[in-house]
Specification:
Layout (H helix, E strand, L loop, with lengths): L5 H27 L15 H4 L9 E4 L2 H10 L5 H7 L3 H7 L2 E4 L4 H14 L4
Parallel strand pairs: 1-2
């Protein structure tokens, strides 16, 4: 239903995105007070760049995949309106250009896990 009309989607985004940013900020403050502090605190944020929320993070990771792979995976998860969803998202190339790190996810879950572990190793202990 969120993709039924541009107006419906915009209404939902105006409602949700500020709340998501508030919750993330509160959680990050809580995590920062932990002893010992974690090496990294990871938040999965759909439409991160589209919402303009990348500035609330110290680093970003764009997990990208070929369009055919993305479409197949979305369909396998039962997502409908795949074209409408894709039209709302930035192109993979732009996400990759804007992200601090890029991980290509066109293979297996194990390959994705390994690639994400390599990014984690690059992060500084804060």
């Amino acid at each position: 239903m969120a993709f039924a009309t541009p107006e419906d989607r915009e209404w939902l985004e105006r409602l949700l995105w500020p709340r998501v940013a508030e919750r993330v900020a509160a959680w990050r403050a809580q995590v920062a007070d932990e002893e010992p502090p974690p090496r990294a605190a990871v938040v999965e944020t759909p439409l991160l760049f589209e919402a303009g929320m990348e500035r609330i993070y110290d680093a970003t990771i764009a997990v990208i995949a070929d369009e055919a792979v993305r479409r197949e995976r979305a369909a396998a998860r039962g997502h409908h309106a795949v074209d409408e969803r894709a039209a709302r998202q930035l192109p993979q190339e732009e996400k990759a250009a804007r992200a601090t790190y890029v991980v290509v996810n066109s293979g297996t879950v194990d390959e994705l896990s390994l690639a994400l572990s390599r990014v984690l190793e690059k992060l500084k202990v804060r």
